[in-house]
Each structure stands twice: as structure tokens, then as C-alpha cells.
Amino acid sequence: MNTRRLATTGVALVAAFGLGLGLTGCGNQNGGDAPVGNGNAGASSAPASSAPANALAELTAAALKLNEQSVRVNIKSSVMNGGGLMDPRSKSADMTLDLGAQGGKVRMVTIGDDMWLKAKSISDKWLHMDATKLGANGQMNLMPDGDPGGAKKMIGGVVEVKKTGEGAFSGTLDYTKANPNDKDIKALGEKAKAIPFTAKTDAEGRLVELAVDTSVLLASLGQMTTTYSDFGASVSPEKPAAGETEEAPESLKKAFGG
């Protein structure tokens, strides 16, 4: 399988988390396993925006809570479904994506600065990568230092937002602001600067749903909805056995931003 096409799945995954990155498509993957895992949970300020201060402040606070404790992430879209558990504080995660007819399952396990990916169309073994070498904007560096839950990145892409009801918001994301150095996003041109979204928060002011209308990028993509639940759940992914692991090829690392 073309490693560049697999890298676009990394973009899709981060977009699904609501971390302000763009969805440029999905390659063909097969294999992977179901998530394991069952950690817990800092925050800081978000970038400025032209959005109304009250709505932006409330959405910012809700998003920043994703940096504070563990959470279950569930993703639904026309091109991929799945999810798993992640703990930004310990930088641990166990996620599985099902690409359906487009290629089956891809599983990703993160423990600290180490990330393993399993896609049988590439290798029967787990492919290891050092997340720190993927760079802050690397497509598979899902929990970078200083913004492990990706909340600041998401808020950095908000160009407008309004409150539409109790715990309900709608607005527009500019992926080029959230990720100015991402070549895939730049290639999308003006379309990447006006991505409609809606968001929901719970009674405790936490972000619990983010729906992004990715059909503006490509009609067949439709809406991608990410939900957040089971806050504080235990996250304890298992490190793949040494005999089942090999270092990811340089071409894959480079495609992911390494």
C-alpha cells in the first residue's frame, strides 16, 4: 500500500478528534485489532479569534477540558468509523479506525513518546514511531507537548462561532490557521478556510460532540461527528511484544511528518 495514502488517514483521524486538522482522504488499509485499554487526567489559554467573545470563551473552556482528563473518543463518518480511549495527561491512547469497504481496520497505540501502528496491508507486525520526531504538527503526533488534547489547535482554527442554545454552538473553522505548515491542508486551497461545524457541551461544561461538515472539501465525505464520553476512564494500553514489532519505514515516517 502507498504510505502517502496511509498518511492521509492520519489527517482524517486528527480531524475526527476535532483537533483542527483537515481531512484530505483515506487510503486503503487492512488489518488491525480491536482497542484494548481502560489513566486519567493541564490546560492553558487559546489563540485569539474574531468570534463573539462570550461564545468563543465558553467553547474554548469546553475544549480545553479535553486536555485535563482521559476520555473515550468515538468517530462516525461516511469514510471511517471507530475510536477508543486516550489520556492526554499520560500521553497514552488506544484507537482503532474501521475504513469499511475502503480497507478494513487500522489500530494505533500511544504510550508516552512511542507510537505503534498496525495495518496488515503494510506489515503483519506493529510499526513503531517516535512521536517526538514527527514534529508538533506531525499527522500522527496526536498528543503534542503543551496541548495534549489538541484543544488549543481546534480553537485556533475557529473564525466564527455563535451559541445556538443551551450547550449548543455553530460556527466555521479555518484549517489553514490551525495548521499553517501542513502541506495537505494548503493543497485544499480556499475550501479549507470555511469548514462549518457544530458543537455540544455537557452540564459540566465539557465538549461532548463536534460535528464537522467535511462535504465542503469533498462531497462524498459528508459530515464527520466526534463524540467524547467516559471522562476519567482508565486508559492502560499494552505495549506490543518486541517480537511483533518493527521500526516503521522512513517513507512512512516522512509521510506522517517525521
TrEMBL record:
Query: From which lineage does this chain's organism come?
Result: Bacteria, Bacillati, Actinomycetota, Actinomycetes, Micromonosporales
**What species was this sequence derived from?**
Micromonospora rubida
Going by the UniProt record, its keywords in alphabetical order are: Signal
UniProt name for this protein: Lipoprotein
Q: Which residues form the signal peptide?
A: 1-20
User: Region (Disordered): which ranges?
Assistant: 230-258
The answer to keyword Signal applying to this record is yes
